[in-house]
From TrEMBL:
InterPro entries: DNA_helicase_UvrD-like_C (IPR014017), DNA_helicase_UvrD/REP (IPR000212), P-loop_NTPase (IPR027417). The keyword Nucleotide-binding applies. It comes from Phytohabitans houttuyneae. This is DNA helicase. GO terms for molecular function: 3'-5' DNA helicase activity; ATP binding; DNA binding; hydrolase activity. Gene3D superfamilies: P-loop containing nucleotide triphosphate hydrolases (3.40.50.300). It comes from the Bacteria. Keywords: ATP-binding, Helicase, Hydrolase, Nucleotide-binding. The lineage of its organism: Bacteria, Bacillati, Actinomycetota, Actinomycetes, Micromonosporales.
Length: 612
């Protein structure tokens, strides 16, 4: 990817970045979003930037490839210096079991919730308090409240109200402890990140880049929103927003940006897999359609021995590991099998008439209750596959299977849930059969695909590079009867069409273009009226490309439109009739946007280093 020239869409992002625009960039799977951010940052070497991602691996890679003027940090890394280091001694403190947390919070007696529900033991209540505080720390809220207490399996609405009445005051006491450097409760990195957000921090930089923005939780989105004096760029794929269970929000659609641009050329897979991904984007009614990389030959079809098998549920991953062992293949499980092992151990306790402290099952007094809940209660459907797995194979067999897992470096096949596969890729991928097609029932004769399920399917089918066995997602063809809207080919479009397709500009500006105004002329850009076809596919020949000029000013990074030297600024204004300097350039760009003038002209001028 790094050896290719920028695509037309990448150039549009770079141009908008250079004029200081606040941006949202919708980048499809494998479309080089991080690379685009790096190219943009290199056009402003004198500007101080901060790149933020929640994923440590992304940040480590960014540190190796971004210019030295860009500071690369995780969200927690941002917060540690100003806030977290004061709590470093608490982060390294000893682990404390739930009964010790209960002692610190002075929870000494079990709580009666209802006549039909078992008493909630002090250690169980302590776990609920800890979970509520963790949810609060991922939110933008000022204090712990009722909605931070998650719903519990097997508990009725009236019972949840009672539980929340008990938990919320305790959660506020716990938060007060966590705000103190001398507190006693176990301390996590999310605690100081939350304190940082509540302090309304103002970052000292010229621009802020947020990568994988679709995975931002409310606390990170809030920190991003607070930086009103900084150029902000949010990049991600809203169709991959599958981490809502972990507090992530759709920050991209809610962020007020000057411009919204897209990256649709994938470099991960070829056209066949891109076409499959586009079926799910069609179902999601996403504005983006992917273009496959012509230089990668990708195929859709059955696979006997894939490099990776992707499942919807943890229970199905165990089934796939068992099947692999039966076929003589060593299997690795992404994320390991500790969570599955703990569930199986909880099942053994319940089968033997003992209670369990497992957070998903502690409200049940027997395995029979769990079976009934999973099969007949709609809120228990997420446990159904696991219950059937235990009933079919036995908890001991499940534990033995988990214990036989090997490291990925020694595995013949990698098994993963789709959630844990996000951000990964393999040459060959098979989709497991537990991605269920919605079926009509008497109560719901015309079912719809749940949006979260469609996003998970999109993530799943875009993990393969060369070969994809659709398996449990092949049923998508029955839901896309009218065919999929073809991918937008930016390399064969005028700049005007490209910007219009990216929803940049006011309705008036869009109407102005639709009324017949021609795209920017060749004498302005030095390009043919047809957008130069020098995107990374390298096909159909190449028209002339426009290089971004090297900046001249060591202070602001501008070319001859620099405003740092008053005499040079005056000469530039006299010569061109335009204001000089990046600030004036950005103001002119936004003024054109607000007045409905053709924003294409502003972007194209920026592309060749001419003031807008």
């Amino acid at each position: 990817m790094n050896s290719h020239r920028p695509t037309s869409e990448q150039e549009a992002v770079i141009a908008a970045f250079r004029v200081g625009s606040t941006l949202v960039v919708e980048a499809g799977a494998g479309c080089g979003k991080s690379t685009t951010l790096k190219m943009a940052a290199r056009t402003r070497p004198s500007a101080k930037g901060i790149y933020v991602a929640y994923n440590r691996a992304l940040v480590d890679e960014a540190k190796r490839s971004f210019p030295s003027s860009t500071w690369c940090k995780t969200a927690h890394g941002l917060a540690f210096g100003p806030v977290g280091k004061r709590f470093a001694h608490r982060l390294s403190g000893p682990r404390k079991p739930a009964r010790e947390v209960a002692r610190i919070l002075k929870i000494t007696e079990p709580v009666k919730v209802s006549d039909t529900m078992p008493l909630v033991a002090p250690q169980q209540l302590a776990r609920l308090v800890t979970a509520a505080v963790d949810r609060f720390c991922k939110s933008a809220d000022p204090e712990p409240d009722r909605w931070h207490v998650a719903r519990i399996n097997g508990v009725q609405d009236s019972e949840m109200r009672v539980i929340r009445d008990v938990v919320v005051p305790l959660a506020r006491e716990a938060w007060a402890d966590l705000c103190s450097t001398t507190g006693e409760l176990p301390y996590t990195h999310n605690c100081y990140l939350k304190l940082y957000q509540l302090s309304d921090p103002q970052l000292r930089c010229d621009y802020l880049l947020l990568d994988e923005a679709q995975d931002a939780n409310p606390v990170m989105a809030s920190i991003f929103e607070q930086q009103t004096d900084v150029q902000r760029v949010m990049v991600g794929d809203a169709s991959q927003a599958i981490n809502g269970w972990n507090g992530a929000v759709d920050a991209m659609s809610k962020f007020a940006a000057d411009a919204r641009l897209t990256l649709s050329q994938s470099f991960r897979f070829g056209p066949a897999i891109a076409d499959e991904a586009n079926k799910w984007l069609e179902i999601l009614d996403a504005p983006l359609r992917l273009r496959g990389f012509e230089q990668i030959g990708s195929t859709i079809g059955p696979l006997a021995a894939p490099a990776a098998i992707l499942c919807r549920t943890n229970a199905e991953t165990v089934s796939q590991v068992m099947a692999a062992a039966k076929a003589g293949r060593r299997a690795a499980l992404v994320g390991g099998g500790a969570d599955i092992r703990r569930l199986a151990e909880a099942a053994i306790d319940l089968k033997n008439g003992r209670g369990t402290d497992h957070p998903e099952l502690f409200m049940f007094s027997s395995w029979l209750e769990v079976q009934d809940y999973a099969e007949h209660d709609t809120s228990g459907s997420d446990l159904r596959v696991f219950v059937r797995l235990i009933d079919s194979h036995g908890a001991d067999v499940v534990i033995d299977t988990v214990d036989r897992l090997v490291d990925e470096s020694r595995a013949d096949v990698v098994v993963s849930t789709a959630h844990k596969a996000k951000g990964r890729e393999w040459p060959t991928v098979r989709v497991a059969d537990d991605f269920r097609e919605p079926k009509a029932t008497e109560d719901d004769p015309e079912p719809e695909i749940v949006r979260e399920d469609a996003m998970l399917a999109y993530v799943t089918v875009t993990r393969g590079q060369e070969y994809l066995d659709r398996g449990g997602l092949a049923w998508v063809d029955r839901w896309v009867r009218s065919g999929v809207r073809p991918a937008f080919d930016a390399s064969k479009s005028t700049i005007g069409e490209l910007i219009d397709a990216s929803s940049l500009g006011t309705p008036e500006a869009t109407a102005h273009r639709e009324a017949g105004r021609q795209a920017l002329s060749a004498d302005l850009t030095g390009m043919l009226e047809e957008q130069a076809d020098w995107d990374a596919t390298g096909v159909d020949g190449a028209a002339r490309a426009v290089e971004l000029p090297a900046p001249h000013c060591h202070r602001c990074g501008s070319g001859d439109n620099c405003a740092c030297d008053p005499q040079k600024a005056a000469e530039f204004t006299q010569r061109t009739g335009k204001p000089a300097g990046p600030a004036a350039q950005r103001e002119a760009f936004l003024r054109n946007l607000a007045e409905g003038r053709d924003v294409v002209e502003s972007l194209a001028r920026a592309l060749v280093g001419i003031d807008a």
